[in-house]
Every structure is written in structure tokens, then in C-alpha cells.
Amino acid sequence: MQSTRPTIDILVATTSGNTEYLADQLNDQLTEQGFTTRMHYEPDYTELVNAVTTDTYWLACIASHGAGEYGDSMLAFADDLHAKKPPLDPLHYAVIAVGDSCYDTYCEAGRDFDRTLKDLGAKRLTERLEIDMSRDDPEKKSSTWLGSFTQLL
Ligand SMILES: Cc1cc2nc3c(=O)[nH]c(=O)nc-3n(C[C@H](O)[C@H](O)[C@H](O)COP(=O)(O)O)c2cc1C
User: Start and end of every Flavodoxin-like domain (predicted)?
Assistant: First the structure.
């Protein structure tokens, strides 16, 4: 039987690997549930933006570094997005922001990505999940959130 479930592009912004690990866990859960996924450990701006259609679903897992900067693997992507401001009306997306509440710029990169996509016309599927690495259980919190996220697809 042909699956009608959408393919999910998982975008990862990481510097030290925590968010990559988390994204891999989510990928495992999604594939177990029958979703097709594509992992983007160093998201390519041109490839991803040019491929956007009404069937495009991005799940962005974004770590904050520096003073609210994006994790290294998505710095170039974020720079292009801010500079080029592509219209993204057909896109559906959700954001998991990873950070640490000991920083004033808590989860700022994930918040920025969420705000930027919304401003570019993309459709937010659900409220952003914020994971505080100094207080939360990342796997438990993201797994619970993923359950409600997949209901929306
Ligand atoms: C040098 C440094 C700067 C950081 N800056 C921020 C920040 O501005 N805001 C925030 O919420 N977390 C910040 N963090 C916490 C990271 O987001 C957290 O350690 C996260 O797990 C890193 O994810 P990654 O391993 O995927 O890169 C910082 C961590 C480091 C080591």
C-alpha cells in the first residue's frame, strides 16, 4: 500500500553534536512510524529552498551557540536565509530549539529560525519546542512533542 505520509526533511544546527544526536533519535522514531525522512546535517540552502513545494515539511533542530548564534552546521544556511529572504509560502515547518537557560540568549537561534520562516510566509505546524539542556530530559521531552507533531501531518 502506498504511504500518504509526507517526507520530512530534518535540518540540524549543531556545533558539539548534542542536537545531531537528538535529531537522530527523532529520525528513528519517525521512520519506525512509517515516515520517510531526509537528514540534513549541514543543510544546503540552495538545495532545500529550491525544493520547497506544498508537500515540503521541515523539522528544524537548532542549537544556539555564541550569543544566540546558530550551531556551526547551519551558520551558512542562516546567513543566506537572512540575506536572500526567499518567499516560503508553500513550506510547512516546526522547530525544536536547543539551548541552555544559563545564557541570556536562551534558544535564540531556534527562536530566530521560527520567526524568520514565519515572516517569509511558511506555515508553522505547531508551537516551537524549547529544550533546556541544563534542566530537561531532551529525549523524553522531544519524544512527547514528536507524538503531537506527527498527529498534525
Ligand atoms: C560556547 C557556547 C555558547 C553557547 N551559547 C548559548 C546561547 O547563546 N544560548 C543558548 O540557549 N545556549 C547556548 N549554549 C548551550 C548550547 O546550546 C548547548 O550546550 C547545546 O546542547 C549545544 O548543542 P550542540 O551540541 O548540538 O551544538 C552555548 C554553549 C556553548 C558551549
Answer: 8-150
In this structure, the residue with its CA closest to atom 8 of ligand 1 is 68
Q: Which CATH architecture has domain 8-151?
A: 3-Layer(aba) Sandwich (3.40)
- pLDDT of 4 higher than 90: no
Q: Which atom of ligand 1 is nearest to the CA of 12?
A: 26
63 Cα: distance to centroid of ligand 1 (angstroms): 6
How far does the centroid of ligand 1 lie from the alpha carbon of residue 87, in Å?
Answer: 29
Nearest-10 crossing angle of helices 138-151, 18-32: 40
Flag whether pLDDT at 67 surpasses 70: yes
Q: How far apart are CA 26 and CA 139, in angstroms?
A: 8
